[in-house]
Amino acid sequence: MAQIGLVAHDDRKDDMAKWVKTHQDQLSQHDLFATGTTGSRIVSATGLSVTLLKSGPLGGDQQLGAMIAEGRLDVLIFLIDPLSAQPHDVDVKALTRLATLYDVLFACNKITADAVLNALKDNGGNGAHG
């Protein structure tokens, strides 16, 4: 079982909810953590159990970053909107830097997220550290 962080920029939240719904059976076998608004949308669309953190701009991105730094997150799926400026861009950059620094499986679009889920399946459901 992997610990998976889920976050999406505002213009990608619908995409995240649809992606999670598509992969609901596999994701239900893992511990899911999500920033507040993204997580609420996922729960509403799927009924999955998701630990809700604060909204991204209110500290949720930093909570996920802390989980990465503490070795408590195996996977980060962050659907990024590359065409819109983000008011909390510095938090976003810090989160992606930590995911890279700590070798966490990291996806920033749906096709890479699919590949990450396949890697989890091939690894018996364990994250990169499992």
UniProtKB/TrEMBL annotation:
Substrate binds at H9, K13, T35, G36, T37, T38, S55, G56, H88. SUPFAM superfamilies: Methylglyoxal synthase-like (SSF52335). Gene3D superfamilies: Methylglyoxal synthase-like domain (3.40.50.1380). Residues 1-130 form the MGS-like domain. SMART domains: MGS. It catalyses: dihydroxyacetone phosphate = methylglyoxal + phosphate. The active site is at D61 (proton donor/acceptor). Keywords: Lyase. Its EC number is 4.2.3.3. InterPro entries: Methylgl_synth (IPR004363), Methylglyoxal_synth_AS (IPR018148), MGS-like_dom (IPR011607), MGS-like_dom_sf (IPR036914). It comes from the Bacteria. It is an enzyme of class 4 (lyase). One of its GO terms (molecular function) is methylglyoxal synthase activity. Catalyzes the formation of methylglyoxal from dihydroxyacetone phosphate. Belongs to the methylglyoxal synthase family. NCBIfam families: MGSA, PRK05234.1. This is Methylglyoxal synthase. It comes from Devosia rhodophyticola.
